[in-house]
Amino acid sequence: MHWLLGIGLTLLVFVTLKYWAGLAPEQRKTVGWKVALAAAGLLLLGLVLTGRVHILVAAVAALLPMLRRLPVLLKYLPALNRLFRTYKSHGQQRSAGEGPGRQVPPVTGSMSVSEACEVLGVKPGCAEDEVVMAHRRLMQKLHPDRGGTDYLAAKLNEAKTVLLGRRGS
């Protein structure tokens, strides 16, 4: 039985090398990376299935190739920083009797246009479409159903109302 496995692996190596020789140099690099990632994934899967590597370590290793998308995600950092700074300042103004999960105070409507632009991360005088898209993008990240807070969602809604309400008048 082992000699059949040996012959099969030898044939597989032969066919693979023949295919590799027929590739252009640019294609060899991309195919090489794909083969290396696939081999690493299979090795990691084998180690998880045999109990030699914990599933969480395997999950972290699987997320490593996604680090190249990190710069794209970092462009949203200033807007999130402004929102969390606003949330933090709101938390310091709470009375001592209130705890997390309490009723959020209603939005007062005293937000200025410049504050609304800062909250949504848009420039003053921007188009209505930009306001709507910025609100939608941030709401998808900070909605209470997705781990955000009622306060942040209320601030986003107030900022959108202020900016769109000013356009109508």
Characterization of this structure:
There is one protein chain. By secondary structure, this protein is mainly α. It folds into 2 domains: 2-68, no CATH class; 75-89 and 106-168, DnaJ domain (Helix Hairpins), CATH 1.10.287. 70% of the residues lie in helices and 0% in strands. The chain has 8 helices and no strands. It has helices at residues 2-21, 25-49, 55-63, 70-74, 77-93, 113-120, 128-142, 150-168. Helix 6 (113-120) packs across helix 8 (150-168) and helix 7 (128-142) runs antiparallel to helix 8 (150-168). The protein is elongated.
Question: What would you say about this model in short?
Answer:
The chain has eight helices and no strands. It has 169 residues and is mainly alpha-helical. The protein folds into two domains: 2-68, no CATH class; 75-89 and 106-168, Helix Hairpins.
Topology:
Blueprint: H1 2-21, H2 25-49, H3 55-63, H4 70-74, H5 77-93, H6 113-120, H7 128-142, H8 150-168
Q: Could you state the oligomeric state of the chains shown?
A: single chain
> What name is given to the CATH topology of the largest domain?
Helix Hairpins
**Termini separation (Å)?**
84 Å
Rg calc: 27 Å
Task: List segments where confidence is low: pLDDT < 50 over at least 5 consecutive residues.
Answer: 95-99
CATH superfamily of the largest domain: DnaJ domain
* Number of alpha- plus pi-helical segments: 8
Mean pLDDT equals: 81
| CATH class wording of the largest domain | Mainly Alpha
Estimated helix fraction: 55-70%
| Second-tier CATH architecture of the largest domain | Orthogonal Bundle
Number of strands: 0
Q: Approximately how much beta-strand content do the residues carry?
A: under 5%
